[in-house]
């Protein structure tokens, strides 16, 4: 005989008499996390961020986006920074890999945050769809705008950058969309 009880919308626990142990049953396999990259760049204590419209709401984020099929993480972060800010981003190091689950929809994101420098600003370049403008903000100014941050990853990446977190680009830079999901991440 199997006793079944629901413990959350996603899980059901089965208790079997034979073993007496609880076994979690998923009604469906969880989706793989979305693989994204982010550029963290700082000049004179200010961080480059984008102001973007997401679901009719203006939010702040690092220049960031999804990795495209066949693209390495380094290629993706350079492309995303240029498309969203009109700056050329040159990555120096990996800050970290972060796994975040959006509590409002359950979607998971695996973000690879890179630090580096920007140059060759092209102010006449149109920015990506949804990007309203760019800002250079201090950590304190980001905290003041906490309710407008796209996710907790924005501050976490800044704090890890300020804390000196750096890994060589060789650790993950050549990973692609197909291989990036195998990398261990900090879970938020």
Q: Summed up, what is this model?
A:
The protein is 18% helix and 40% strand.
Could you characterize the architecture of this molecule?
The structure is a single chain. This protein has 188 residues and is α+β, with helices and mostly antiparallel strands. The protein folds into two domains: 1-28, no CATH class; 34-187, Nucleoside Triphosphate Pyrophosphohydrolase (Alpha-Beta Complex). 18% of the residues lie in helices and 40% in strands. It contains four helices and twelve strands; from the N terminus they run ββββββββαβββαααβ. The strands form three sheets. It has a five-stranded mixed beta sheet with strand order 8-4-10-9-12. Strands 5, 6, 7 and 11 form a four-stranded antiparallel beta sheet that branches. A hairpin with a 2-residue loop joins β5 and β6. The radius of gyration is 20 Å and the shape is globular. Mean pLDDT is 85; it is low at 1-27.
**CATH fold name of the largest domain:** Nucleoside Triphosphate Pyrophosphohydrolase
Strand content: 35-45%
Task: Work out the helix count.
Answer: 4
Numbering strands along the chain, what is their spatial order in the largest sheet?
Answer: 8-4-10-9-12
Structural class, judged by helices and strands? alpha+beta
Q: How far apart are the first and last residues' alpha carbons, in Å?
A: 39 Å
What is the CATH architecture descriptor of the largest domain? Alpha-Beta Complex
Supply Rg: 20 Å
Helix content: 10-25%
Low-confidence stretches: 1-27
Biggest sheet descriptor? 5 strands, mixed
Quote the average pLDDT. 85
